Amino acid sequence: MRLERLRTLHRTDPVGIDRTPEFSWNIVSALHNTMQTSYRLTVDDGERVVWDSGIVHSDQQSFIEYGGSPLRSRTPYRWSVRVEDNHNGIATASAGFETAFLDDDWVGRWVESTIPRPQAEGDWGHGTQPPAVEFLRRFEIRDGFRRARLYATALGAYRPSLNGARIDDRELAPEFSVYRSRLYYQTYDVTTQLRAGDNELSVYVGDGWYLCPATRPLSHELRTMPAILFQLEVHYEDGSVETIASDGTETCRTGPVRSSDLYWGERYDETAPFGDPQPVEVIHLGYGNLVAQPIDPIRPVELLPARTVDTSPDGDVIVDFGQIIAGRVRVRIDAPAGTEVTLEHFEVRTVDGGYFNSTYAGQKDVYVSDGTPREYEPLFTFHGFRYVRVSGLPVVRAEAFTAVLLTTPKERTGFFECSDAGLNRLHENVLWSQRNNMMSIPTDCPTREKAGFTGDIQLYTPAAFVNEDVTSFLTAWLQNLAAEQRDHGVVPMTVPFTTPYERLSLTMSEQYGAEGVTGIAGWSDAAVIVPWEMYRATGNTMVLREAFASMSSWCDTIIATARDERGSCDLPEELDRHLWNTGFHFGEWLIPSQQQKNGDFETTKESAAYVAPFFGYRSIRLLADIAGILGLDDERDRYAAHAEVMRDAIQRVFMTGDELPTKLMGGYVLAFAFDLVPAERWQAYAARFVELIEANDGLLDTGFLATPYLLDVLVRIGRADLAIDLLWERRQPSWLYQVDMGATAIWENWDAIAPDGTPGVSSFDHYAFGCIDDWICREVAGIRAGVPGYKHSVIAPRTDTRLTWCSRSLLTEFGELAVRWTQDELEVVVPCNTTATVHWRGERHEVGSGSHRF
Ligand code: RAM
């Protein structure tokens, strides 16, 4: 038996944390039926043990919270665990973490550029922002140091260098967050880059999210100048510590980055020298909003060489990378001084060989050469693209171009492969959209909006977990969500909430007779559903506890809105007051038969009529369950009672006849999925739902909010055959239609490309409809969590004759759970410390850990 995958706060050896750590490990053993019987965890700082859990007779091996004496600021720790199992096996292993600032440790002062900077106009800007600013600071240090850490952050996106070399390869720090209350600072190990004597620290600051017009924060305290804060701490052999901190003695200047914008792109001019150093100004921002970066930093995680170069009918030179990614292009340029090279990024080609983008902003990077051959990659922007139109270069060779995928690195947890190339590609597309849209926060698309839409991640969380470990990533995002909740707990449509979306929310509220920013069904409910799905995927009760205040304040808003706002005057008041049926909602969003025309929201209304009350009920019902799990019995009873009256009101308003008052499939899907259908209507509604699909030529007609439950509901009403047919459907709208049309990521809209190849107006890289990947994992491969977190799993493949074999693995909190089946045989690998029920060919087997063949 041995221990693997030791994680602290679900990260590997994190440096610079300011939260109480939790610990996890996996057990691997050659013996079957291995269960952990006890563990003992110790934490030490190199000199003394600060926590000894003692022997704990428990099978818990994840989310074990630190319980020792207070941790010290800026200190490296080791933790060790000793595990015993039921076969008398004993194993030990250790890992590390290092704290950042836990006390009032900041002495550095915020310093701001004094170089005049005109303000961009409009919500989205025009890509004409002023140059990036480099801050410089010289300092001297003594010989004999053994450890040095730089703590730093900025308003804007920054790239630090020491003595002319980049400190590491992280990108676009500080990441996108609710800066007003959660601005992340970074911790860098600079021990090997410092030298005794003279040193120079450079911090080059582009616009990033903070200064970009489309993403700048709402706060009226918003600053409009690039600014930095840093503190370098040098620990000497003799035990002394020297601190060099930003203090106003820095200088600043502009250089080759002439303009940078996350949407429009960057202009980099090698012929523009760095200007004369200008003074900086000390500003008083305080340290109250500073948080040690809680997730792994954005990095270049994959490089894709260009596949081909060709010329479009219009004579444009197009480089194809073969895959839609989020990131940017790295290109070797050898051109005469003054040559201006333009890179314009596109997602798809049109039938006539042109190219197309779903974004309004240019996605255009410009490089001006000084005649020296160099490799260029933009510093302060990223794009969503597969193709790049190149102009300004006399010769374009594919070998000179590489696409760089930028994302928050996460541990891959899932692998899927089967005998069908279409399903394999579909899975790949899901994974790509996931990686392309998880750069510091979960976003809708990396092209048009790059925004933290709450609805998209709400519905996608289960699928996210079957592909990557998103625990630390989503925990951090939920903290941002809580920080963004307004006075009454309202969760906005995006987190972070930014100026353009605040404006949109206010406009929509006004049109729908509401006031201020109001909650949106299925979007704001992310506050409850995301933590709930995190718990289901990993057994994580910490996140439920931590998010409880945020969830309950959101649910209280639903209850109050239903009570105080009169929805329909046709309804008796005693029913209306339990229905969330006012304000603006996106409805299911992007139902094929209800497509929006000219950006109006008329078509969202029909589905909004059921989406709002149903999701309102759903959130409150889940909150009651969550309170129960946390042992909060009063809250459980209170919210359960609210849920009960809401369900009753929904049934009395929507479910009195033999069909729902809508012809949309999603109404049925959500009614079944949320257990709203009264027993006496079950048969009729199931029949009606199937009729709707049949009347639609066997095709689905659901949008964002209902699609995740569509196939499950069919299985539940006894029509698994229809669910499987929808999965295998190749006509539009369907998942495999996208694949057949050459998609390399998941489309935002079912009709993103018409059968004749004409692209529509939507994005080609939205993970939302990728929610199917979770269903494939559970139903086709047959891996299901028997209890939240897979302590017990249920393996029940749906062997479909359209597949000759299927193989799926899932790295659970306990380790790898794997299934491989052919038409004749099933192989299952069950992780240590768990059990499984296997259903195969009409038989049921109870098994323990290890590999099994049936
Ligand atoms: C679109 C976004 C997102 C969706 C909202 C309602 O513009 O791309 O996917 O959540 O609108």
Automatic annotation (TrEMBL):
Keywords, sorted A to Z: Hydrolase
Top-level lineage group: Bacteria
Record-annotated Bacterial alpha-L-rhamnosidase N-terminal domain positions: 146-272
Limits of the Alpha-L-rhamnosidase concanavalin-like domain: 312-404
GO molecular function terms noted in the UniProt entry: hydrolase activity
Protein EC: 3.2.1.40
Gene3D superfamilies: 1.50.10.10, Galactose-binding domain-like, Immunoglobulins, Maltose phosphorylase, domain 3
Annotated Alpha-L-rhamnosidase C-terminal domain residues: 782-852
Enzyme class: hydrolase
Pfam families, per the entry: Bac_rhamnosid, Bac_rhamnosid6H, Bac_rhamnosid_C, Bac_rhamnosid_N, Ig_Rha78A_N
Catalysis: reaction(s): Hydrolysis of terminal non-reducing alpha-L-rhamnose residues in alpha-L-rhamnosides
Keyword Repressor: no
Alpha-L-rhamnosidase six-hairpin glycosidase domain residues: 411-780
InterPro entries: 6-hairpin_glycosidase_sf, 6hp_glycosidase-like_sf, Alpha_rhamnosid, Bac_rhamnosid6H, Bac_rhamnosid_C, Bac_rhamnosid_N, Ig-like_fold, Rhamnosid_concanavalin
UniProt name for this protein: alpha-L-rhamnosidase
Organism per entry: Nocardia xishanensis
